Every structure is written in C-alpha cells, then in structure tokens.
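Re: the pair you flagged

First of the two:
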Amino acid sequence: MKETQVIDFVVPWVDDTDPVWRKKRAEHLGITELEGNSEVRYRDWDNLRYWFRGVDKYAPWVRNIYFVTDNQKPEWLNTDHPKLKWIKHTDFIPEEYLPTFSCQGIEWNLHRIPGISDNFVFFNDDVFMINKTKPEDFFVNNQPCDLPRLAVLYPIGFFNHILFNNTELINRHFSLKECIRKNPKKWIKSQPLSGLVKLAIYGNRDHLSYNMTPHIQLSYSKKTYDALWKAEYDIIHATCLSKVRTKEVVTSYCIRDWQILSGEFYPKKPIGKCFHTSTMSHSNEAIEYLRKQKGKIICLNDTEDETDFELHKQMIIKEFEKLFPNKSSFEL
C-alpha cells in the first residue's frame, strides 16, 4: 500500500448499561440539558460485532482500527488483535474536556489519537460495511472522497440550530461562489442532475446556505483539524468544554465543509446510504438494501421517534446474521 494511501478507521462506542458510566453521566447531565441528549442517543442495538465482521471481510487493506470508548469494551472483543487499537478518552482528549458525554467532545479531538494516520475514515457505530471496498473509495491522491450537496436549511428542531452554527462558522472563512470558481470541475463532476440544479440556484452566492452531510462514513485529514482549531479555537474549545450537546456548539461536520470549500477533496458519489430505523415497519427498503448489498455502506440510524426498538433490533440482527454468519478475527 502506498504511503499516501495508509488509512485508518475510527469508531466510537458507548455501553449505555455500564453502571459506572451511567453514574458519571447522571452527575453531569442537568434537566435543562436533556434536549438532544436523551437515552436514545446511547442505547445499544447489540450489532457492533457486525461492524467488525464487515470491516474484516470487506476492508482487509485497512491499517488500524481505533476503537474509542470511555474505558469500555464488549466482552467478546479481541483487544489483542494486531490491527485493533483500544483507545480510551483519557488517551487523547485533553483533561479539561473530560469527562465528556457529547459526541462532539470526542470527534473534535480525533486527530490527537496517538499514531493515527494523516488520512482516516470516521464511522459512527451505526454505519456498517456490507460490500467489498478499496482505499480509493475513501481517499484519492491523498484527498478525501466527497461531493458537495448544496441545500437550504430550515430553523426546525434542536439539531438544525447546531447546523446553523456550523454554516455561520464556514461563511466566516469562505465565499461559496469563489470556491466554486476556483475548482469548477470538482464541484460539477459526479453530481446528479438534482445536484447540478442546486449548484445553478445557489452557486452564485457569496454565502453558503447549507452543505448537507450524508449520515454515512466520513473521510477526514488531520491537517483540516489543525486548520480549524487554529482558525476557530474559541468556539471549538467551548464545544469541547460542554459535557453534553447543546444548541450553542458546532459539530465536526465543519471539518467536511472546510475540506470541500477549500478544494481539498476528490469528487466521488457516496458509496452508501442512510436509513432511519423508525421507518422500517412501513418500508422494507433498508432490509432490502442490506440483504441485496446494494451499496458498500449502510447506516441504520436510531431516532427519537423509534417506537418499535426491540422489533427493529431483531429484524436487523437477523439480516446481519445472514450476511455475516461467522465470527471475525476481532472476536474472541
């Protein structure tokens, strides 16, 4: 593997049943902070082993997997695996930000993980590999594979407030039309017709309205982390100091936006698709996508309107067992 294509994977995980973690979280989670931090954000779908089976089978080329937890691990995990790096929050997150119960406090500091590659792929634990991949699915010519997705953001709901914060940050540093003018081929290449239409509508404006981030894996470069921390230290620092997610923070999606607006990306269509588990009772699309391996990546996203958790959990595990019936080398 070429040096420029040395790629690591990062996946964070939390055991929401751990009494030590629950006690620590309860001490820091005030009643005014419950919005956006409900139990749904931490509950376990008991499918992490299939994440490792997918990587073992479909990404044998990956150098290391950084498994990030708050000193937790599933009992079945083989932490002696040569590719597995079990990373605790205390190993890389500055002490002043700990403990943290916000994914942003974790994600904004991933570049600090000792030994992590300059280019790495970030997975949430609900994003699974379900078909053969290659390094060029994630990075080409040392640049993250991605595609701009211009859209309009509406001020509805808790998370959209945070996305507004992200967009305001990005607009302090970039002119959208100038970014497109500098790299027109990158912005146009691989765009579907709908994307080209949105470029025509929004692309001649100075300010970005919104760059929609797909809820699948994300390719990141450490140099982008360094650039953002240098340019926007105060807001990122404040975000990391927050023990839980609030409306005042900015998310690590800014890293992706910065890479795109600065032209540091390689245009390529997404290799996966996101599904919300709450719709599974009404549509079999997610199960069919998984069963027929229609893409290389699938996200099975939990939401607060999920009303059939146990039913959908068993449906998903059943399909994963069909796809990955055997243990991976990461399992004891």
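Second of the two:
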Amino acid sequence: MLLPLPRLLRGARARPTEGVSAAPGETRALTEVALYVLPPAVALITAAVVWELWVRAADVPTYIVPAPSVVLDRFFAGIGFFAKHGAITLAEALAGFALGAGVAIAGASLMAHSRVLERSLFPLAVLVKVTPIVAVAPLFVIWFGFGSFPKVLIAALITFFPVLVNGLTGLRSVKPEAHEFFRSVNASNMQTYWKLRLPGSLPYLFAAFRICVPLAVIGAVVGEWFSGDRGLGSVIIVAHNNLDMPTLFAAILTLAILGVGLTVLTWQLERRVLFWHESNITN
C-alpha cells in the first residue's frame, strides 16, 4: 500500500540518521530526571552530614539519636530483615489502597449520577474521614483478629476519602458541549460513563492516588502497631520498647524508601496513562 506523499515525507524526517547522538527528546528527558533527582539528593546528603557532625560534636548517646552512619550500618547489616518486613507492610498497604480506591470510585460513580445518593452517603464518608485512625485501629484488631486483614482495612480507610472526593469532582467535571454531543448520538448512560465521564476523571483520580499511596503505607504501619508481630510497624514498636534506636531509624528509612518508590511509580503510571492530558504535554 502506497503512503501519501506528506506522510512519507514526515516519516523520512522522523528517521534519525546513523551516527547522530542522543535525540533532543532524550536529552530533555535526562535533564528533567536530573532536575528531579539532584536537588533532593543534595538536600538529603547535606542534612545527613549536618546530622552526623552534630551527633559527634555533641556526643549524643546512640539510644537517644543515632548518627546516620550507625543507622546505615544497621540497615545494610540487616537488609534481609528489613526487606522481609518491608514486603509485608508493602503488601498490606497495596491491598488496602486497592480496596479503598475501588470502593471510593464505585461510591463516587453512584453519587455522580444521583444527588439524592450524594446527600445520603457523603455525610457518612465525612464521618469516616474525621474519625482518627488511631482510635479505630484497636477496634479492628478486636473485631477481625491479629492477621493482615485489619491492617488492610485501616489502609483502605485512610485511602477512601481523598479518592472519593476527587473521583466525584472528576466525574462531574464534564464539558457541557461534550455531554451534549453524547446525547445527540443517543449514547446510553453506560457509554457516557465509560467513554466520557471516567476518562475525564482520570487526572483527578491520579492526583488522589499520589496522595493516598503513601497514606496507605502509614495506615498499614498504624495497624501493625496494635496487631503486629510482623511488618515495619511492629519492628518500630519493638525497637522503641528496647531503646534500639538504630533499628528504629533503619525501619523508618525503609518506610521512606517504600513511600518514595510508590510515589515515583504512581507518577510514572500517570504520565503513561494521561499522555494526552495537557499536564503531561511538553513544548
């Protein structure tokens, strides 16, 4: 099949010639990554150096504040231990995030189509939001036992409200002209939902996901404080009771790595899914 001449010429211009170095797009991508990575890396290294010097100059006992070098030694010496408990916390957090986000999106979809349902269900959602997680966690342990299920529920609970609010806002933020077009072609409510409302709500949902993924980790850790014989939350509690500050700070470091990694993965997924959105279009 012959290609039209304009398309053929565009294809020829798009092919890189041999011997040419990195394309401008690749250079721009590397520069963007460097701008994201270098400033926080420099800030973290500077903070660690100041922390190390202060601990050594003031001769602060390790059981009060350990030096970063001591924390790193404990972390790398027990890398398998922290990886094992970190994987448990990560699994509970991701399961809770999936459960909370799924229920929130379903609730937002129902409320977006009915003002009566919104007025009935939204106050209950606000009640869930304002209830302190620390107060609910012991109840979940009593009701559901000491396994992973109460931690998953706590992570889901802390995830639920931001996804619900952003999902409801996104599902309602449909351009009137687009909605009128779907009506003009006699699209059903399900077609309008799947092809107009849900795609239009994705930027709002991903904004909530970026917030809720680290929150789900926090929820899992809080659950492990009350019911944990495993996971990073239980490691922190045991280390605190034993005044084992290097282990406690190493567990916090593991949590920080998990949070940063999940946030970066969510951001990358958002860029791939929402490549068409103006927030991801570069000049």
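The radius of gyration is 25 Å.

-B.
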